[in-house]
Amino acid sequence: MFPLFSHLTKRLHNKLIFAFVLILLIPTGVISYYNVRTTSATVIEKIGAEELSDLITQANNMERRLIDIRDDLIFLSQAPPTRHYTDVINGQDDPKSAAREAQIALFKTFLDRAGNQYKDIRLIDLSGQEILRVDASGQLLPLDNNGENQAGQAYFNQAVGLASNQVYISDFDLNHTNDTVDKPYTPILYYAIPLQVDGATIAVLVAKVLLNPFFKDITARSTTPIFLINRDGSYLLNPDPLKLYGKILKTGVTFDNERSSQDVITMFGKDTGIIQNSPDYPDSIQAYVQIKPEAQISIRWLLIRNVPISTILGEVNSTQYVAILLSLLSLVLATVMGILLTRSIVRPIVQLSEVADTVRQGNWDVIVPNTGAKDEIGHLTDAFERMLRELKSVYGSLEARVASRTIELEAANIKLVEAQRKTEEASRAKSTFLSNMSHELRTPLNVIIGYAHSMITMPQMFDDYMMPEIYRPYLKLIEDNGHYLIGLINDILDLSKIEAGKLDLLCSTVEVTEIFRGVLATATGLLKEKPVQIIPDYPENIPLVWADAIRVRQIVLNLFSNAVKFTATGSITLKAEIIGDWLSISVIDTGVGIPEEAQAAIFARFGQADGDHSRNIEGTGLGLDISRQLSQMHGGDLTLSSTVGKGSRFTFTLPIATEEQLRSAKPQTQIDEAFTLFQKPLHEPDEVYSILLVEDEVSLRDLLRRALETLGYLVVDTHDGARVMELAVGMLPNLIILDVSLPHVNGWDVMQQLRADPITQPIPVIVYTASPERDQAMARGAAAFIRKPTPLEDILATIREVLQIPESLLD
Predict the structure, then answer these.
(1) What CA–CA distance (Å, rounded) separates 803 from 471?
(2) pLDDT, tens only, 128-143
(3) Which three-class secondary structure string do you get for 196-254?
(4) What global pTM score does this model have?
(5) Closest CA to 793 of 713, 714, 704
(6) What one-character-per-residue DSSP string does 557-583 give?
């Protein structure tokens, strides 16, 4: 077949014929395919909507019937015969026989009207003994007071405690005789209402309701498989009768065991809906409705109807036949048109081809034949003749021009390489500058924060001289601004790492509720004196997500910080909800809002929304840019919706952990800056504890040494990393505090030497650094990790925890 096709298409005439055919067939085929697919989708959507509408009608009818039963029981409890019989039971009236006959007549009349949906109606006194029972046929049943006492039944006990006109409705059950489930299995509900005299309950009116009439109405109207599931997962309706009543019969066959977790969550999570191509029924449409009668919390049923898609697509077959027929007719028409039109096109093109072959052989004096046509081919012939003359004149100098252009391109390439080299050098210089700036700025800031905090909270470092109250606000201001500058440095470094592609996420399974609690506690402190309410709006059973816990906390805390800045009164809400395979997290405030024209640039780097409010708010404008990029690194995004004067909503998404991820990782919830792993006590309580302090910055080293010596520790400090092993072996301290950012020596190498030497290996080491390298410190055997800056009391608490020292021993 292919050699024949190749032979036929060697001629331009045949190629044009094929072109005509293909040009017509391709759009015809696309249109036909689109028409079939559109028709299929429309029919499926239409039938799905019709099935759902019919299912909703059935669910509403069932809810109405269940509510009518409750109303009937209230009516019976308030009917005059029942009132009169209640007085007889209470001993306030006589004769009993007349009241009893009237009550029986009322029950008979009611049961005749109600049809076959009741098994019986009975009256039970407070001792649990039946005093009257009438079955569905209106027959008075004999009472066996020596039989089972009703006081042990849930419907009796629950009804006794209800107020007048309140009805207890039991959960779904099967008809029992004593402790045995009767066969054939009969699904029932119990409705019970107290009978009261002067506010006191003297008896209970109970109706035993048969559910089979309800179920028959549902199945009679459906030609496709239909399921009804109780809230405990048991099937109340199923085409396979062996799968019914799984929980009560303890067969283990339940809806949640048979269906995928995705279908179970979807169907029980929404009142109505349609699922197509689910893992359980890939070729079916599943319409579902939840049955939740008003004020009947014990009844939560799920009604599902399956419609096979194959039965729907029969209506589309006729459309396919029409499309095929039109395509065949188009093919015939295209072939005929191609034969007729190509004859006038091919001849002049063949002549031009012969001229081109002659020119290719080096004959520039060939004459181009004149076709005399005024169409495109005639213009092509004229253009070919002009081109031939121009080529003839240009050919002589072509080689020189090519050589000149080659030289220019080589020079341009050299400039591009040089420009790229300079760009890379500038990028490396920027990274080096940011790293050096971070170290140079962090060191004095740590000292400023440390001394300001200790002057307020640790007077024992200054001969127990209490700082006068007049100075405390200013010292606190120094400390707060120091922390603010540290935050700005962190933002700039994070941004630099993101741009360089060096910021890696340490993803694991994360329990976000723990992060939410910590953020809410921090956000409460940010409010200060503002009349703003913090509102948590998320379920406690949020599934684990696959994320970096530290970065998730950074995003949420940054969004809360922005909300606090721009919200003077009202509320700030932390909301989380599950959307498909993603967890959506939102921070919603009632602040000033963001104008629509400013929303497009709100995530711009170093940018803030223009306005009177934003001009008075401090900040670099990096937080939202970093938060958005961190969200995108998790596979989601950070979005905004806002209305001026009403507030803003920032939302980002995190992926829910898959089953494979849940099996392979442990939950990551701890994100504090100090982690203690050393638990074994080292010394007796009456010993003096010695500490080797390794810190290259003089002021910070002096601050820590003075604080530790004030509390009774023996401190030896050094800035020289090369002397650490010598001092550690010589003094064998109880604890080493090590800054891994040391000049001339790699602090991690020092750490490795301490862990490798059998003499120093038992000595616990606290890594104290400004870099977020907790995982590396823990992997190298650190007892604890403290990130600068940290308040002195937290540092001292970590030291006490590592050394297992009670606070009372340091007083």
Answers:
(1) 35
(2) 888 888 887 777 777 6
(3) EECCEEEEEEEEEEECHHHHHHHHHCCCCCEEEECCCCCEEECCCHHHECHHHHCCCCC
(4) 0.40
(5) 704
(6) HHHHHHHHHT-SSEEEEEEEEEETTEE
